[in-house]
Write a structure and sequence with these properties.
The protein is α+β, with helices and mostly antiparallel strands. The protein folds into four domains: 173 residues, 2-Layer Sandwich (Beta-Lactamase); 111 residues, Efflux pump adaptor protein, beta barrel domain (Elongation Factor Tu (Ef-tu), domain 3, Beta Barrel); 61 residues, Beta Barrel (OB fold (Dihydrolipoamide Acetyltransferase, E2P)); 62 residues. It is built from nine helices and 20 strands. The strands form four sheets. It has a six-stranded antiparallel barrel. Strands 2-1-5-4-3 form a five-stranded antiparallel sheet, with helices on both faces. Helix 1 packs parallel to helix 5 and helix 2 runs antiparallel to helix 5. The longest helix has 38 residues.
């Protein structure tokens, strides 16, 4: 009853927001603006974690929080499969609740990071009531009936506004074509040859093919400090960005378990020594105990080797820096008490002034690149001061990134390292070979056409 009362109290505010959104939708005449309005501004009506807009003829068109969805990303491809599976739903219903069980029946079990617990899909209808697309919203809270009713009304009015804007855009193109046809033939006759010659000549003008990639200034040939063995970090003796000398103490691992093992092994060794002395005296009167002496000698040697090995591990619990430099480390307090495995990265010791550029290039932007190609870094903090450099390395294989996409790793040297600081981020402009303007203009459309056609 409390949730129903709250919905009734919020209804006037939601209706006012609905009227404002409907007025904005009627005022907008461009389809991209309407798409942005639906997936982002609907937050004024209902709260949701993410929203996606899909059309039958163009796929995933818009997504909340994104300027343009990357159709090559695994998440957008998964959304396309979900939308295509909506053909099995009741087309007359104003909305559909999608459960994890239903998606699993379709063979589309979602990743928890992609879908929240509560998901609803609303159809977009044309004038003839046929479905032209869907809008999907997901969140963790349950969808109330009042929210879904207001949302259905909003989606319905938005569909009408979108169809008018789409028809207007098509009409504008037709009017431009008709206006061109009605222009003076004499005027066109005077300039047509000059225009054709100019365009053809422009298509063969050589230009430098360039691509952009996200970049960061990273250490050059850093000394990576890793865990020498399994254990628990007991103490960190340095601070982030601290300048240290060679053999400086960096961190230590917990020694208590190893020390207890040494004590236990030492006591066992003492017991074996005592038993060995007793048997050595008894063998004088009983020769049958000689095999027992050889067995005890082997056990004593084994315990001595075990103690020596543990002592060696104890010596390795204190880690010193192999070189001088600057410590690159996260918050030291987060490492205290954390278990680590052999070879796990703890920190990095970098040399001052020895930095380079690390960038990640999207597979769609990959062009023919050679070492020593010119690159230019535009820092986010200093966009008006470009930093020149040279391409040093391009990865041969696309690697997965944290955001779920693939990218090629790029390393580039910096001509003047005094212009940048370690950790600075920006955009890297990479220069390729010289190509004609025609290739420069048509490279992306041809690649998209080829992926769409399939050859």
């Amino acid at each position: 009853m409390t949730n129903q009362n709250q919905e009734r109290q919020l209804a006037p505010e939601k209706l006012a927001a609905l009227l404002q959104l409907q007025r904005r939708a009627r005022d907008l005449s461009e389809c991209p603006a309407l798409e942005f309005l639906l997936v982002n501004e609907s937050q004024r009506l209902v709260s949701y974690r993410q929203a996606a807009l899909w059309f039958k003829n163009s796929g995933v068109k818009s997504h909340s929080g994104l300027v343009e969805p990357d159709k090559n990303s695994p998440y957008i491809q998964y959304l396309s499969k979900v939308f295509r599976a909506f053909s099995t739903l009741d087309t007359d219903a104003p909305f559909h609740r999608l459960s994890i069980a239903l998606l699993s029946e379709w063979g589309l079990k979602p990743d928890p990071e992609w879908f929240a617990a509560q998901t609803v899909a609303l159809p977009l209808r044309a004038a003839g009531r046929s479905i032209i697309g869907w809008v999907l919203l997901t969140r963790d809270e349950y969808w109330g009936d009042t929210e879904l009713g207001i949302l259905s009304e909003w989606v319905s009015s938005w569909s009408a506004s979108y169809q008018l804007a789409y028809a207007h855009s098509q009409t504008s193109v037709k009017k431009q074509i008709l206006a061109l046809g009605e222009s003076s033939w004499t005027r066109w006759r005077l300039f047509r040859w000059l225009s054709v010659v100019s365009i053809v000549a422009l298509l063969f003008v050589p230009v430098r093919l360039t691509v952009l990639a996200t970049a960061e200034v990273v250490p050059l040939n850093p000394q990576v400090i890793r865990a020498p063995m399994d254990g628990v970090v007991a103490d960190i003796f340095v601070q982030p960005n601290e300048e240290i000398t060679a053999d400086a103490r960096l961190y230590s691992l917990d020694k208590r378990e190893l020390e207890s093992q040494v004590k236990i092994a030492s006591r066992e060794l003492d017991s074996l020594n005592v038993e060995f002395r007793q048997v050595s005296q008894q063998v004088l009167t009983d020769p049958r105990l000689r095999p027992r002496i050889r067995l005890l000698e082997g056990q004593i040697a084994e315990k001595q080797a075990e103690i020596a090995y543990i002592d060696e591990l104890l010596n390795r619990t204190d880690i010193n820096s192999p070189t001088s430099g600057i410590v690159l480390l996260d918050d030291p307090s987060e490492w205290l008490g954390r278990p680590v495995q052999t070879g796990e990265k703890i920190m990095v010791v970098a040399q001052p002034g020895q930095v380079e550029i690390e960038a990640w290039l999207s597979p769609t932007d990959l062009i023919e690149l050679q070492p020593e190609n010119e690159v230019t870094l535009f820092l986010n903090s200093q966009p008006l001061n470009p930093v020149p450099g040279k391409l040093r390395y391009l990865g041969h294989e696309a690697l997965p990134r944290n955001e779920g996409t693939l990218a090629y790793r790029i390393r580039a040297s910096i001509t003047d390292t005094t212009l940048v600081r370690l950790g600075a981020q920006g955009t890297l402009k990479i220069a390729g070979d010289q190509v004609s303007v025609a290739y420069w203009v048509l490279r992306r459309p041809l690649a998209a056409l080829r992926s769409w056609v399939g050859f």
